[in-house]
Design brief:
By secondary structure, the chain is mainly alpha-helical. Helices cover 70% and strands 0% of the residues. It contains eight helices and no strands. Helix 6 crosses helix 7. It is globular.
């Protein structure tokens, strides 16, 4: 028996994630970065409700939310780059936290339907964006440029590099100049491929003809 989302569906979650992605592309000053973190916090809060996360997980997430909101507020007044870097760290932590309850919810479902596919896509995007914020955090906090002669990336470039790495596309235009960024890129590529293999296995194992066209009771 599958467990239904607590409220709403993954379509709305996916729209919110895409909205934060678009906002991240234009977040070029600390005010927009703070706004981005506030929007992310609300997105993850809504996601936990949809995925029906356990009370203990919601409590742990609440602590992360509080730290993220504090980081966003401090970032508005920050004049030194390390504070901005820790704001990106909070953004990365938020989106790295979020895929777990989605995957857990999807794993309980007995069939593949629209919500399963939307939820899997949402989790995949969250992982890619989480690593993108982590790269931006490193670019701000480490002494040397993240990409060597290419310098430090803007947030849009960090997100681009993250998804290119996670999908193992490998254009080669941006390359981390040393660790820990190189190790993080390897970890992201492994997680991205593992997620795809697991997601495909779930779809193949639970696919039933007509599931897509059946009425969706999950919202």
């Amino acid at each position: 028996m599958s467990t239904r989302p607590a409220r709403g569906g993954y379509g709305g979650v996916l729209v919110m994630i895409l909205a934060t992605y678009l906002l991240a592309l234009v977040a070029e000053n600390r005010w927009l970065v703070a706004l981005l973190l506030f929007v992310q916090t609300f997105t993850v809060w809504h996601l936990l409700r949809v995925a029906g996360a356990r009370a203990g997980f919601r409590l742990a997430a609440g602590l992360v939310f509080l730290l993220a909101l504090v980081a966003a507020a401090v970032n508005i007044l920050a004049q030194e780059s390390p504070l901005v870097g820790w704001t990106f760290f909070a953004a990365s932590a938020l989106y790295l936290l979020a895929p777990y309850p989605i995957v857990r919810d999807l794993g309980r479902r007995g069939r593949v339907d629209r919500q399963t596919l939307l939820g899997a896509l949402a989790a995949y995007l969250l992982i890619g964006m989480s690593f993108g914020f982590a790269y931006e955090c490193m670019a701000v906090l480490q002494p040397g440029p993240l990409f060597g002669s290419e310098g430090d990336p803007g947030l849009a470039d960090a997100l681009f590099f993250s998804f290119v790495t996670m999908t193992t596309t490998g254009y080669g235009d941006l390359v981390p100049d040393g660790n820990p960024a190189q190790s993080l890129a390897v970890l992201e590529a492994l997680i991205g491929q593992l997620f795809l293999v697991t997601a495909v296995a779930k779809v193949v194992d639970n696919w039933r003809p007509g599931n897509w066209s059946e009425p969706d009771k999950a919202g």
